[in-house]
Each structure stands twice: as structure tokens, then as C-alpha cells.
Amino acid sequence: MKQQSGVSYTTVDQAYFEKRGLRRYAGVWSLWALGVGAVISGHFSGWNFGLANGWGSMLIAAIIIAVMYLGLTFSLAEMSPALPHTGAAYSFARSAMGPWGGFLTGLAENVEYVLTPAVIVFFIGSYMSSIFGTPSEYQPLWWIGFYLAFVWLNVIGVELSFKVTLVVTLLALACLVTFWFSALPHIDFARYAMNVGADGVELPEGGGPFLPKGWVGILASLPFAVWLFLAIEQLPLAAEESVDPKRDMPRGIIAGMFTLMLSAFMILWLNPATSGVGSFALGSSGEPLLDGFKAIYGDNIAKLLALVAVLGLIASFHTIIFAMGRQVYSLSRAGYFLPWLSVTHGQRKTPHVAMIGGSLLALAVMMALWFIFGEEKGGAVIGGTLLNMAVFGAMFSYFMQALSFILLRKNLPNIERPYRSPLGVPGAMLTMLIAAVTLYYQLTGDPAYTIGVFWVAAFFALGILYFAIIGRHRLILSPEEEFAMQQREKDKNN
Fold first, then answer.
1. What is the helix, strand, coil percentage profile of the chain, to 5?
2. Could you tell me if residue 5 is left (phi over 0), alpha (psi between -120 and 50 degrees) or otherwise beta?
3. Predicted TM-score (pTM) of this structure
4. Contacts of 421 (CB under 8 A, 6+ apart)
5. What does the pLDDT look like over 194-235, one tens digit per residue?
6. Per-residue pLDDT tens for 276-290?
7. What class has domain 2-493?
8. Domain ranges of the chain
């Protein structure tokens, strides 16, 4: 046993890590697809609720959130090749702030990556029930079916997983590009995009104010703008499966971010401006892209168009299951979670136990809410409260990752950095500021969000209690833990 900073490390032999091996496969384009695919469902739906505050409010909110994510992704582009471990956010915070900082950051990301696929598969089930006419009470069967299919695809092997990721991401982007070109001849921006009045009513002839609700409207739109970029930060979780993370990780995450920025602002410009749609209607729509397609091509091909819309959801569902598996795997390999969760498939070298365990937990939560609250209310809780819990976990982890970047620049200035963020410390500070403002507004402006935060707080309390009593005495010297300890020793000697 080794002692450090109030934690104890258990000595393990080489066989421990042989049972937890991963296989390197991913190049730049695989990493790009992983980042874009995780986010792309947010361009199909979710972002549009911010339009209820006016198109101008949503535009400014999207710009602010894009700045936050630029600061985050450039910080990650520097940290991930410098610390190329599967732990990603947890490993950055572990090296910068010690075991407790790493654990809290990992716990926040765990909330995001376990619950986000659950919310996405709920929306997939809603679409599929509508397309195939299955009774709504059988929706849980769609959830189980999609989890089985996409966990299986991720378990089969990293090669197949990344190939599927690339294909579904390209198909989802192709759907968006098709909409852009289809919409261009049918837009009337002044009449439809600007049809929200100062008191929130619809203006049939358009010509509404740029900021119908003033600066309050911008703040209210921030949480919805997050959906245009949420989950791009998962890319560093593939570090130990990247062929050359020091070269490819920065290229993949930066290319992914700029792809998403282009797509985000194209959909924000064209979807509300399409004739017959408009910002007012999209502000409460569950399927804004589908509404746009229907306005252009008519309702006769609605089911085909709905299948098109499902592609975006599937792309994000598949890629975030990948991320969830790696996130649980890394924390359990280091002993923060139960170590048996990090065992990988003997032949496939994929973290199948972590993916199955995380998926079963998500399904259990969904089933409990569905049967406790009933079909209608249970669906609202899954689509609302769980969604808010995932966003809270994400925002907290962004704050911690940006703080880790600043502390690593200060405390470990001499570690090898194959890439350096052009935004540096100011970019990371902006990320922290915007994440904190977004969290504050969600806490004070959305009662449904407060309920989600309560459950996240309860989960955190249980996690902290477990770590304080048991977990911190059973840590294991995984690669990221060993790196952090070696750097601490170097600092002492210098």
C-alpha cells in the first residue's frame, strides 16, 4: 500500500492491466466523427426552445456558448496530448487538483454520460412509436432494443464502433446539408425568423424586435444554446484508442468544433426562416428539423422524414455510449469506482462491463420513472429532469476542466505539450465564467432544473460518502494516477 494526500494505493500485478487492455485504432477522422456524432442530435432538436425568447436572443446566446466551447476545446486540445489517458476530464483534474478534484470531476462527467444516452433513447423511442404506430405504452421496448443493438456494436470491437460512428455521423450531417440547400429557396427571414413579439406573442407578418425580451431573453436562451455543442468534450476519452493521440487528438477536436459551429449557425439561420415555420412555432416544437422538411416537401412523406430525423439521434446515442464506457472504465481501473467494472473483453479489448453496467443503470432509472409516475408524467420527467441533470453534470465538469487547464499551466509548466492553446489561460477563464453564468441562470430561472440539481446533489453526496469511507483507501496506480504522482515528486525535488 502507498499513501499520498489522504489516499491509499493498492499494489496490483501486470495481470490486472492485461485484463483491462484497449486497442489502438482511431485516426483524425475517427476522432472527428466521434466528437461531431456525439453532438449532432442537438442540431435536430432541443436547441430550438431558445427561440421562444426571440431569434436575436438565441443568436447572441449561441455566440456566447460557442465562445465557451472554443475555450474548452482549445484547452482540451492542449491537455489531451499532454496527458493522453482514457480518463480525460478526471485525469486532467487529478493531475491538477489531486485525487479529490479528479473524483468530483469524474463524478460530474459520469452523470452526463450515463443520463444523456437515456434521454436520447427516450426521444428515439418516441419517434419510432410514431413512425411504426406502436402503442405508446410499449415505448420501453424501443429503449431496450436500441440499447441492446448499440451496446453490442460498441462491444464487438473498436474498429466496428468507429466505422459505425463515421457512417452515422456522415449520414446525419448529410441530412442537415440537404435541409440547408432545400430551405434556401424557401426562406423569408424578416417574416418568419423575426415573428416573436415583445410580449412573447406571434407576429403573423413578422418584423419583430431583435431582442423581444432584452438581455433577460439572452440569459434564458443560454441553456438551449448548449445543445448545439454538448458532448464535444468526450473526444479525449478515446486517447488510449487513438493511434497517435499527440498528433491526432488536437486535430480531431478542433476540426469537430469548427464543423459544429458551421452546422449550428446554418440551422439557426435557416430553420426558423423557412416559410411556413417561424421562430414562434419552433420555440415549442419537439422536432424542428422535421417541421422544416414538412414545410418544404409536405406532410405526405412525414414518416420518411421522421426516419431521417432519427439518424441524428442515433449518431449521438451510439457515440455517447462509447464515451460512457470509457469514462466508467477509467474511473474503475484507477479504483475510484468498483475495479471489476474496468475489465475489458478478452478478444475484442473493449470495456464491455462498463458499457453494460452504465446502460443497465440508465435503463433502470428510466423504467423506474416510467412506472412510478406513469406514461405521460414519467415521459416528461425523463425528457426534462434527466436532461437537466445531464446538463448540470456537463457544466460542472467544464468549469473543473478549464480550472485544471489553468492549474496545469501554472503548476506543471514543463510537461511536454505537443499542442498549445492559442486562447491560453484567458480562454479557459472565459469558459469558467460562461459555464458558471449558465448554471446560475438555470438554477434561478427554471424550477424543473432545480429538481434535477437536487437529484444530482444526492448522487454526489452518496459518491463522496463512498469515496471518503471506502474508495480513497483502494485506489490503484493506473497510468493517469502514476503520471500525477511522478509529477508531484518532481515538483518536490525541484
1. 80, 5, 20
2. left
3. 0.92
4. 74, 75, 77, 78, 405, 427, 428
5. 999 988 899 999 999 999 999 989 988 988 899 899 999 999
6. 999 999 998 878 888
7. mainly alpha
8. 2-493
